[in-house]
Give the backbone structure.
Amino acid sequence: MTKEMLINTVEGKECRIAIVDKGVLEELYVERVSSASRVGNIYKGRVTNIEPSIQAAFVDFGLAKNGFLHISDVYPELFPGGRKGPESVGKKRAHRERPPIQECLRRGQEVVVQITKEGIGTKGPTLTTYLSIPGRLLVAMPGMNKLGISRKIEDDQDRAKARDILAELKTPPDMGFIVRTAGLGRSIRDFNRDLSYLQRLWKAVKKRIKEAKAPAEIYQESDLVTRTIRDVYNTDIDRVICDNEAVARKVREFLNVAMPRTKHVIELYVGREGLFHAYGLESEIERIYSRRVELASGGSLVIDQTEALVAIDINSGRFREHSDAETNALKINQEAAKEIVRQLRLRDLGGVIVIDFIDLRDEKNRRAVERTLREHMRGDRAKTKVLKMSSFGIVEMTRQRVRPSLKHSLFRTCSHCEGAGLIKSEESQALLVLRTLQRATAKEQVASVEILVTPVVAHHLANNQRKELADLEQQTGKKIVIRADADLGGDQLRATCFSQRGTEVAWDRQSDKGTRPSQIETVNIDDVPRGGLAARKPPHDAHAGSEAESEPQEAPAKAKPTGRKRSRRRKPKESPAAPSPSAETTESAKSTQATPQPNKTDKPEGKTAKKTRRRRSRGGRKHKKKTSAKSGAQSHKQDDESGNVHERPATPEPQPAEAVE
């Protein structure tokens, strides 16, 4: 089969170009009018801000986001006096030899810049003051003083031929040139024609720079069709198929000018199904956006893209061709290396790329996988750098990222999961609702709370958390309303609080980031009764009622008077009949087990009262006997003071601890 270029266009909307080699999709370029690439465009901008801490400046050149200009991309013409001078092609001054950016630029200064990388995410485009204008065979570099050869031309003989051709060209002294890979094997006449075209173009650009006022666009790169034909098309492509007559004629005219001596085959698709569909590419293009890529041998690739890097994992799957595990791992890794290079081109992935190959024990097998990866990377137009495989089977590499990946260009972030691919489960959302209600109902000014959740979460709350909601309403006395809203995302939750008058209450005021409350309300666990704090009324209730409910029915044994007023309830009068010693001892033991709850209105206790309370909490036989005897003595004393005489039985002998308990 042959190598073909397919061009599919939707007039005024989108252009797609596919390179198919032997029936396999090798490259895909997509550009839409709404998000057309601006890489290569030249602008006249104005410096808006200078950041010495990062040695960079931000330039307003007419787009929504300001461009980023680093000191390493500042041309020597902008250096302060005494540091000017042209540079050679491919040999820029080192960073340490450059003056600080605050000495080169000032706020409000006009500069001519060119976009080298599209803005990605929240970042603006990357700019440079080193201008370059590409032609078919040459790339013009205004301000440079030497000639160079593309680094992609690696053969020594080809590089020597290119140098001979450059030596015959009559180039201007204030402009450098680079021979492109498309110039291999071309005549000196073709180079002179391309050189004349670039000189005329630069003359028009300089005139536009003098006349335009910043911010303004000076030079615009060609459209996707022209750029692809100029940069990608070569004699290896047997034919070009277009589905638009105007595009087909445009391609033919460009090739006749750029490559007049080469025979070109330009065809027009006249079917109705669609060019890519008729060629069987639509289904293959859809698989590009998938996270998992199946290999022919039964293995698979898993590609995860983040903001910082791209992670690729290789799985052996069903591949069992050899009985030796090392041989199996080598074969699947080599097949995966070829497919990884193809996927990087198709998806236009760039930045830092980490590949996790299947572990190999032999060093020679690791080097074999590296060679396979590097050999297939040579055909990539983007600049790449591949490091050696580690002992863990990890290969780190970088690939030039000029624009956002194909996936980010055609898709938008999900409003439900924010691009994470996961949302909270119904149970997690329901628990979050309960925690939110607990916080909201704790506010005194809140009388009712309204919660908006998704229908699925509302159904879960109504069927699985109904008791918890009812208990919370009963404990707090606040009204809780749960409503379902289908317009909410999977993790979204809205809580609104209202006062008694029906006005909205601002209850969820977040504290400043990084601050912590100086004090929170706590109670010592030894001061908490066995029944817990559930029986306590809310803080807004009367203190007397709270104290009456929290105290035990029997009066506790008195401690020695401390000379201050007690806040406890008065002891009721005893009946004339004196209780038996055993009953009295039992009641005294019960009183020692019940510890009154701490009350914020009570005055601080004295040393004796605190010591008695601690003894009660600890318990013990000796303390119980002593408390019982003291309680009986105090009862006799009260009778004597009132003037009433009662017959009291003789004090019995102390009962054993088992009888008291």
User: Anything to note?
Assistant: DSSP finds 18 helices and 25 strands in the chain. The longest strand covers residues 42-51. Residues 539-565, 573-603, 636-661 have pLDDT under 50 and may be disordered.
